[in-house]
């Protein structure tokens, strides 16, 4: 399988403001890839650099093995892009915009455009300024997908879409993915990535801190341990402080993320008077928050995740 | 041509309004001529002897009492200033509006090279200006015929040709600026057009400011000079062409390297 996207040490500063720093990314052809990060992490900067809208300060990137700077037009011909803020020309109808894009691509996309508009319940005869935020997003989706691109880059695609439209949108993406298209979508909605993507990368302060399959990312050595019982005075859990994060204690309940040897923990726990004990895999959201919560104590974990991926 | 057609569609209302406005003023001015001609004997001398005011508008060089003279001064100012404002407005925002209206992410992620985008947009600006000038020329010719005057065809072609060239030069310069700005810039465009117009008036009045003629395109489009010499100043035209070409070159170089936000 070939690389759909391959970025090496991609760096972009806007003056003194950090965009992305030494970003490495590898997306294989046929992947359904999630790009996770909070606002300002550099998701859009990374995407805009890949699409040639902005020039990187250093580093290089390839899409389908072609250099993003040297082969911009060939790359764009095979790519469909949905920006996070979809804006079109006022005074024009949706169908005019779709036709303009098709003409610029020298393609006849009318059949696919009609089908996509029907599935997303978008009236192509409406003028751009009459559209709600969600409908404008739908127009952007049709525009990004109507030419059956080999790579779909979607920047926070579901903002403004109602749940029904979201479901239809993801079902379209899954169909395209089954037909061989690579889907690359950025989001800060983790449940969305967890439900739909097979691969993901987590972005923090302009750099990818972990990447791999969504299952791998969720399957860290860490476990969410929740104890219910009568806890008075000091407990022995303190001896594990190097392996414990996100420690929360309420009356009769202790919860923490544990990344040490599970046998040793169980030995210590036998000394407690427990009413209940659950040990579960943390969900992606917990892992994500944990990545962001403590940059320093995380270094080891990042290494683990990188090894896994 | 797809992008040029798209720009022409986007700009058609503006083109219509500006052509109609300038055309209306031009026609009104021409229709005023027969009335003025009757009282012209005294007026012509008076206009020619108002010192620097006469010099500013070139009325000391030509006979304001004849149709070509009247047309060059009265209609020349309408055409010159109106056309320059439209040319500046049309081109100053042609590149920057994509970022201002957030449509850049749509347009610049289509498989179109930046240089093609720049040149197609420039073609749209030039086509709109040529279209406006053709309509205005036809309107002027019809209006002159309607008041029963003989058509001073050579003078008319020289005057209108000079104004078209002025607009193209100004548009090319504003086009260069458009590549640098991210927001509107209408004020910059109108400001440049107005300043260049007044520079020519100053150059006409003061001998020491004559060098300004090498800066402003209004110098080679000065109706009085054109009528007096029955030709266009090739040196000034060449200089104008150079300024325009520089504007376009700067736009191409800058926009091809620009970070689009």
Oligomer: heterodimer
Estimated helix fraction of chain B: over 70%
Q: List the secondary-structure elements of chain A in sequence, H or E.
A: EEEHEEHEHHHEHEHEEHEEEHEHH
Specify the structural class of chain B: mainly alpha
Q: Stretches of chain A where pLDDT falls below 50 for ≥5 residues?
A: 295-309
What's the overall average pLDDT of chain A, rounded? 87
Characterization of the model:
The complex is a heterodimer of chains A (309) and B (261). Chain A has helices at 43-50, 72-77, 94-104, 110-119, 133-145, 163-178, 190-196, 214-218, 262-269, 284-293, 299-308, and strands at 3-14, 17-28, 32-36, 58-63, 66-67, 79-82, 151-155, 182-187, 199-204, 207-213, 223-229, 244-250, 253-258, 274-280. With 309 residues, chain A is of the alpha/beta class. In chain A, α4 runs antiparallel to α5. The longest helix of chain A is centred in the middle third of the chain and has 16 residues, at 163-178. Chain A starts with a strand and ends with a helix. Chain B has one domain (2-257). Chain B contains eleven helices and no strands. In chain B, α1 packs parallel to α7 (114-146). The longest helix of chain B is centred in the N-terminal third of the chain and has 37 residues, at 2-38. The interface between A and B is medium-sized, with 31 and 21 residues.
Main attributes of the structure:
heterodimer, A: 309 residues, alpha/beta, 6-stranded mixed beta sheet, 4-stranded antiparallel beta sheet, 11 helices, disordered C terminus, B: 261 residues, mainly alpha
